[in-house]
Amino acid sequence: MEISFQINGENRSVQVEDENTPLLWVVRDVLDLKGTKFGCGKAACGACTLHVDGEAVRSCSYAVKFAKGKNIVTIEGLGTPERPHPVQQAWVEEIVPQCGYCQPGFMMATAALLSKNDHPTDEEIDANIINVCRCATYYRMRKAIHRAAELTRETNLQSTENS
Amino acid sequence: MLFIGLIASVIFMESNEVASMKKYKPLERDSNITTEKAYDQVMQVLMHPRCMNCHPTDNVPKQGDERHPHYFDMARGENDKGFSATKCAACHQEENNDYSGVPGASHWALAPASMGWQGLSKTEIAKRLLNPSTNGGKSHEELVEHMTEDELVLWAWDPGIDANGQPREVPPVSEENFKIAVKKWFDEGAIIPSEK
Amino acid sequence: MAKKRVSRRKFLVRGALGTVGVLALGTYVFRGSIRRVIAKKLNSADAPYMGDTSTPLIWFEITDDNQIILYSPKVEMGQGTFTGLAQLAAEELEVDVSQIKVVHAPSATGNMDGFATGGSTSISALWVPLRELAATMREMLLIKAAEKWKVDRDKIRFSEGSFYLGENTMTFAEVTNGVSEWEIPDTPELKPTSEMKWVGKPVPRVDLKDKVFGAPIFGMDASLPNMLFGSVVRPSKIGSTFKNATFSEAEKMPGVIKIVLEKDFVGVVAKSYQEAENAKLAIEVEWETGEDWNTSAIKSMLTVGKGKPFTIQKEGDVEDVFESTEVIVSEYWSPIGAHAQLEPNGALAHVEEDKATIYMSTQVVKITRDEIADRLGKDKNQVNIVPTFLGGGFGRRLHTPNGIQAALMSKAVGRPVKCFFSRKEEFQNDTFRPPTHHVLKARLNDIGAIEAFEHNVSSGDVAFGSPMVPSIAEPILGADLGAWRGGMVQYGAIPNYQAVSWRIKLPFATSWWRSLGLLANTFAIESFMDELAVKTGKDPAQFRLEHIQKDDRGDRLSSVIKAVVEKSNYKDAVVKERAMGFAASTDASTPCAQVVEVSITDEEIKVHKVFCAMDPGLVVNPDQVRAQCEGAIIMGMSAALFEKMEVEKGELTPTIYGPYQMALMKHAPKEIDITLLQGSETPGAVGEPPLGPIGAAIANAVFRLTGKRLREMPLQHYLNS
Predict the structure, then answer these.
(1) Minimal-distance CA residue of chain B relative to C236
(2) Is any Cβ of chain C less than 8 angstroms from the Cβ of B133?
(3) Is the residue at B161 inside a domain?
(4) Locate the Aldehyde oxidase/xanthine dehydrogenase a/b hammerhead domain: which residues (chain C) (predicted)?
């Protein structure tokens, strides 16, 4: 069957044999966007986190049929080196990644958090960001999340002033 | 697609058979039950982990038949739906996911805190259930509708497979008999029998 | 200055259009023979790594746009090695770090590390050879530039990848144009550390942008046109040997291209990942299995006194002291640990008639190439392993025979096949950190000094049984060098001490896990040291200082202890329901001391602050050394507090994150204070040493809060049991 959705700003249609195929594999293997990672396939680690209509979703546990007509954003669509998302900007500033494999999932979860709350407390970060990082880069991630929040507030302020 | 449905149904059939043979006596369809028995059957379902796990009194959803706290310290969060970046819906979709073993149903969320049942007695649960100030202002009619038609409630009889591919246990009363019991109990005034 | 110069014959230059390469064929690293390793081992508490005496080779390439590509024989698994190597190369090439691009060397380039990437050795091992190569290449280019300009080379200046003569400039790339023959000079003098521009600077990771913007750099991300997906049926039960499989149903499943039956496995090749996984469920495999193991059977097997003992350290005569006086004895245990790296093992293989190409995350490029070539019946030179960035290593990829399975499936279907583990398969087929049992004995004299100290550790294999340590070496080595890592007594002022390693072969695979035995051994030794300090009533840090010998090694250990005490304002007291815990370790010559600030609320151990002082010698990149400390501390905390594999009905369990509890954001300390000391002119181990003290430091703090001595990890699990 054919399923259409918007991904990273583009309208795409994919042919799938099995409408229950996890969105993760469609994104990675059909659309060739490899930034969204497979870690466990059980919605436990969060490496496959992307956005569906602005909400963080673990794509290994999200049947592609549910994506029909939705707006999907992956790490590739979050920002670019030229125009980084505040979360990516902060991740670069704080030099967060080590092996880097889990980082897109963390950044997508963080971006979802900041879109709803641009001034999270440590407790809110703890409750919201529950992905798994084996290199245990959590210490820098926390700093980066606070920094990204700061950048987000600056951006929000500018857009308020400009409007 | 066809084969997945096929496999899934084979697994379910086998498992339900196994589960019911091992743990429960299959209940005959029984409309002529007493109000006490109806109450008892309703309570057996409400107190089963499939229902109770999402009616916590400590804001922490539970998982599994042994009711362990939800892994990764998931908690009630905002509006019973988890946290901004980690809503229940980040993992739980409209239906069970057989690939991940994550259960799903319409409007997956915790029951409101006022409907926390865990650790309460049958009588206390029934009181909370019937009291409009704790049950979200529901009348008896609305309660019957909620308990017999809400997809999230009925999920208990279609709970899917877990992360290891093992089928989840269903409540000890069949869906059909539960619905009969709910109607019977409410029809007869939803009287809470005194505890023995 | 540089004594071990690269001699001319060790260079090979390959000139292509606009490129020049320098390939060193030296024997620089791991040159020590097995016997020399042993000699070193017996003389010090060092934990040297041994290899097969072959060497890492390094290859530079200069591109037309004047970028310098460094083909690294070491893989990047997060430890920051690529960044450090770029800094070392930039130093002698006199270029900006940004001009150097570090890539993984495919095995076909000829530069492979004969050993592995692991053991916190990458920077220390390449510290001299890489700079010598870079300096030599710079010199070669300079000679050529002088020839082209027909001037004396002394007149030419160079910086940022270009040569300057008056108004004229020539980039490195331009120098290489049209050159077919190169003169190979003697290696120039290397820059003294004091003149270094890049070494010692917190240069941002060279792979930072790729990792922040989602570039497809990992083994899992590899893809080729026409690629299919493979999946191998892996056993759940310990000790399973593949016998046979029936798969007529699986063959008919959607998307299935072929079921591949080999002598030791069965796999399915399908059009998509999910179709391969679905079909796999329909394959019935006959396994030959052994006993139904459980945790308690494993634990009872693993007991000091059982198996083969080997004395790894002996000073004075502990037996003599223990015979005649009262002895303090304590036992400690550590559980089976899983690697749990986020990227599952896997490979993309493309086997063709005359060659095979395998893209994968591996820490052992050469061993993997040789194994695959052997199984395919191909010449080694026909097999090209293309290493990718690793989504975590931690020792999990120090044997990657799964490349063979991908290769055989590719061969069977004549197309590229990508195949990787499911998470459950990762957890059940891991090469685990072995569980350990420790018996510690000591005698305190009248003035509260240790007169005799003994550490016995019983452990499953770490290095033994690994393809990197040939079995022929086992009798020579005697004790498993991985298992006893961190197991020696670092307090040389104790008059009588010894350490004994007991070897037990467990029924499941055990192997290298970041820091090897360090975590468990330090937990045992430093908890016991704390017990002794408590008995004497002395300050725990002071108590350790009193037992450290006066030599270079001892002085460095003393220095980190003093530094962390000062920085943390360490007090052996409970203040505002928080206690401080102290521990120290020495790993591969790098001493590390830590103080943790801990509280217990609602029966949960909470680590608020960690102070860490470490002396890894010369620091190439202080930011990355700090990152390694932060990560190792939290990973060590995770293992010490939460992690535990069990054996039930013959299966290793749990099989998923969550049930296999690991530290999350909420558990990470809000404050990590790192002090780096430099007690050596050369770089030492970084990535593993800071994992040592954390477990004991937390347990020691818990003792102060509860009066309960936790003798078994994971600590959170045993706090209330």
Answers:
(1) B164
(2) no
(3) yes
(4) 213-291
Q: For testing the chain C interface, which of A25, A28, A96, A139 should be mutated: the one with the most C CBs within 10 Å?
A: A139
CATH topology of domain A86-162: DNA polymerase; domain 1 (1.10.150)
CATH number of the domain bearing residue C80? 3.30.365.10
Strand pairing report for C11-12 and C15-16: unpaired
Burial class of B137 by CB neighbour count within 10 A (0 to 12, 13 to 18, 19+) = exposed
Domain containing residue B183: 26-187
Chain C contact set for A22 (CB, 8 A): 274
Interface probe, candidates A1, A61, A70, A145, chain B, greatest B C-beta count within 10 A: A61
Q: Is A132 close to C662, i.e. CB distance below 8 A?
A: yes
Which band of pLDDT confidence, cut at 50, 70 and 90, is reported for residue B29?
Answer: low
- Do the chains contact at C391 and A122, CB–CB below 8 Å? no
**Do residues C138 and C15 lie in contact, with contact meaning Cβ atoms separated by under 8 Å?**
no
Question: Helix B140-149 and helix B175-187: axis angle, to 10°?
Answer: 180
One domain for residues C260 and C371: yes
Return residues 557-616 of C near A (CB < 8 Å). none
Ranges of CATH 1.10.150.120 domains, chain A:
86-162
Confidence of residue B17 (pLDDT cuts 50, 70, 90): very low
Q: Is the pLDDT of residue B196 over 90?
A: no
Q: What is the pLDDT of residues A69-116, one digit of tens each?
A: 999 999 999 999 999 999 999 999 999 999 999 999 999 999 999 999
For chains A and B, count residue pairs whose Cβ atoms are closer than 8 Å: 81
In a domain, C214, yes or no: no
The DSSP line for C142-161 is HHHHHHHHTS-GGG-EEETT
- Please answer yes or no on whether C212 and A107 come within 8 Å at the CB atom: yes
Decide if C425 is inside a domain. Answer: no
Does B3 score more than 50 pLDDT? Answer: no
Among the listed residues C431, C412, C411, C409, the one whose alpha carbon sits nearest the alpha carbon of residue C420: C409
Give the C-side interface with B, CB within 8 Å.
Answer: 253-254, 274, 277-278, 281-282, 424, 655-659, 661, 664, 666
Q: Is there a contact between B72 and C659 if contact means CB atoms under 8 Å apart?
A: no
- Chain A residue with Cα closest to C344: A39
Give me the interface pTM, i.e. the ipTM.
Answer: 0.98
| Phi/psi at C627 (5° precision) | -60, -40
3-state secondary structure at position C620: coil
φ, ψ at C335 (rounded to 5°):
-90, 180
Q: Note down the domain range covering C407.
A: 219-289+345-420
Secondary structure (DSSP) of chain B: -HHHHHHHHHHHHHHHHHHHHHH-PPPPP-S---HHHHHHHHHHHHTSHHHHTTS-SSS--EETTTTEEPGGG---BGGGSEETTEEGGGT--SS-BTTTTB---TT--PPPGGG--TT--HHHHHHHHH-TTTTTS--HHHHHHHHHH-HHHHGGGS--B-TTSPBPPPPSS-HHHHHHHHHHHHHTT---PPP-
Work out whether strand A55-58 and strand A49-52 pair parallel, antiparallel, or are unpaired.
antiparallel
- With respect to residue B136, please indicate whether it lies within any of the assigned structural domains: yes
Domain A2-78 has CATH 3.10.20.30: yes
Cβ-based contacts of C392 with chain A (< 8 Å): 99, 101, 134-135
- Give start-end residues of each CATH 3.10.20.30 domain in chain A: 2-78
Instruction: Give yes or no: residues C414 and C436 share one domain.
Output: no
Inform me whether the C-beta atom of residue B72 falls under 8 Å from chain C C-beta atoms: yes
**Interface contact C688, partner A, CB < 8 A:** no
Q: Is residue C3 part of a domain?
A: no
Does C583 have pLDDT greater than 60? yes
Domain boundary (C371, C391, C420) is at C420
Say yes or no for a CB contact (<8 Å) between A132 and C627: no
- Cβ atoms of C145 and C153 closer than 8 Å: yes
